[in-house]
Design a protein that fits this description.
Blueprint (H helix, E strand, L loop, with lengths): L2 E2 L13 H17 L4 E8 L2 E9 L17 E2 L4 H14 L28 H5 L24 H4 L20 H15 L3 H13 L16 E3 L6 E3 L15 E2 L1 H11 L11 H7 L4 E3 L8 E3 L4 E5 L2 E10 L2 E8 L5 E6 L8 H12 L14 H4 L3 E5 L2 E8 L2 E6 L7 E5 L7 E3 L8 E6 L5 E6 L2 E4 L21
Antiparallel strand pairs: 1-3, 2-3, 2-13, 4-7, 5-6, 8-9, 9-10, 10-11, 11-12, 12-13, 14-15, 15-16, 16-17, 17-18, 18-19, 19-20, 20-21
Helix pairs in contact: 1-9, 2-5, 2-6, 5-6
Enzyme class: hydrolase
Protein name: Serine hydrolase domain-containing protein
GO molecular function: hydrolase activity
């Protein structure tokens, strides 16, 4: 077996401290041995750049000379294809080519328009794995991951009402078939095959130069490892046809690092999709909570979301015959990890352990505090307010303010100026997301109270001068 020492991508800048790199390489090497992986590669992303890369094992097939993985080596990323397709679609959404609430049949009329038809499902439901559409295409052929696939003309007739497994919008249900539909949608919107649209709208702008749609001469051989003996079996590779948008992309570690930078919102990936589109992609649309024990995994728009005791990560996992891949980005820090192996059965929590080791060994330094300007219409609102007897506080933020409970449980939301320019503020999250806040002023122009969806927030508890709720009782506060 061969291995490659940790090194940063030559195009991307700084590396980690040697002691940190040694710890990370040891984790990777241990995983390769313990899980009997023919080859494994991994990389860490910080500030939008690949800061560490390492590999173990050989990418060769049986009977071939051993070959160490290189930064240019392609691995099959399986379902990580889905967030790439979703990114291309959200770019089309930014361009006004469709709405998330559009019935997909509006763009693919062959899927029907009656309520029971697949065409009645919305694009947002399909992207968010909440459409209720069947997981696989059992009506249109055999196991799609392991056999060559037919084209859209062969798949579409099988997408009848019988392909719907659950009422749309009511539960998380992972659907590879749904992304076949979304791939065809992308093709129709852009007037070219889905993979050409993906190349032009995502892979090329991000500089994912090694990413592609089939195995090439610099790709790892996909292998199955016998469960009870140290022998391997070559796995098949083919064009999945209409199902390809669910999992056919191949990519290198630097390629995936560039996509991780996009999910992290790094300036290095700016301009591919809008900030609002990225926010929608990484916000849970449906959660997987089958036993009511508290959700651990959810789905945004083409992006998996993990909830680890309140810690949020976004990205996706992927598997295809001969390969396992994982990409995760820590939402709070922006640090990301990608790991890929040339084995049908792969690693467990290796990506997360690599990410945690980076955070522990080289924690991010907080940005130094410094004064920053606050708009006059925000400065006049900061400080305590009261919702009846419940204390709240307004704190200024870079482009708005935060209204939160003070010292006891209470509703809280961030607010930004309404795009209508009417002087109101719009809630961005939590209970007040999308709701409007209006500052009601006295005759002299000073704030009297806040009107938030009819709730009154006043500067004193139950301000008797407020119309609602007023002093509540004319006797006032008393023992």
């Amino acid at each position: 077996m061969t291995d490659t020492a940790p090194t940063p991508d030559p195009a991307d800048g700084t590396s980690l401290r040697p002691a940190t790199a040694d710890r990370l390489l040891h984790l990777l090497a241990r995983e390769q041995v313990d899980r009997r992986l023919p080859s494994v590669v991994a990389g860490l992303v910080r500030d939008g750049r690949l800061v560490w890369w390492a590999a173990r094992g050989s990418t060769s097939g049986p009977g071939e000379p051993p070959a160490a993985p290189a930064p240019t080596t392609r691995y099959r990323i399986g379902s990580i294809t889905k967030p790439l397709v979703a990114t291309a679609l959200m770019r089309a959404h930014d361009a006004g080519l469709f709405d998330l609430d559009d019935a997909v049949g509006r763009h693919l009329p062959e899927l029907g328009s009656d309520r029971a038809d697949v065409g009645a499902l919305t694009v947002g439901q399909l992207l968010g794995q909440a459409s209720g559409l069947q997981a696989e295409n059992d009506g249109a052929g055999p196991w799609w991951e392991r056999t060559p696939g037919g084209d859209w003309a062969a798949l579409a007739p099988a997408l009848t009402a019988d392909a719907r497994r659950h009422r749309p919008g009511t539960r998380f249900h992972y659907s590879n078939t749904g992304f076949a539909v979304l791939g065809e949608l992308l093709a129709r919107l852009r007037g070219r095959p889905w993979h050409e649209a993906l190349q032009a709208d995502v892979l090329d702008p991000l500089g994912m130069d090694r990413a592609g749609f089939r195995r090439d001469e610099d790709s790892a051989a996909g292998l199955a490892v016998h469960p009870w003996a140290d022998v391997v079996l070559p796995e098949p590779e083919h064009d999945a046809g209409a199902m390809a948008p669910a999992g056919q992309v191949w990519a290198s570690v630097p390629d995936m690092a560039r996509f991780a930078a996009l999910l992290a919102g790094s300036p290095t990936a700016a301009g591919v999709v809008s900030d609002e589109a990225r926010r929608l992609m990484t916000t849970p649309q449906a959660v997987d909570d089958p036993r009511g024990a508290g959700w651990g995994v959810g789905y945004g728009l083409g992006v998996q979301v993990w909830n680890l005791a309140g810690r949020r990560l976004v990205g996706h996992g992927g598997s295809m015959p001969g390969f396992i891949a994982g990409l995760q980005v820590d939402v709070a820090s922006g640090d990301g990890v990608v790991a890929m192996t040339s084995s049908t059965t792969g690693f467990g929590d290796l990506p997360l352990r690599l990410l945690d080791t980076l955070a522990e060994a080289e924690p991010r330094l907080p940005e130094p505090w410094s004064p920053s300007p606050v708009a006059d219409d925000v400065l006049e609102l900061v400080g305590p307010w009261y919702w009846g007897p419940s204390p709240l506080v307004v704190r200024s933020e870079a482009d708005g303010f935060l209204l939160e409970g003070l010292g006891r449980p209470g509703r809280s939301s961030r607010f930004r100026r309404s795009p209508t320019g009417d002087g109101t503020w719009v809630g961005l999250d939590a209970y007040y997301a999308g709701e409007r806040l209006r500052v009601v002023r006295r005759g002299d122009g000073t704030p009297s109270h806040l009107d938030l969806s009819t709730f009154r927030m006043t500067r004193t508890p139950y301000d008797p001068a407020a119309d609602v709720p007023g002093g509540v009782d004319e006797g006032g506060w008393r023992a």
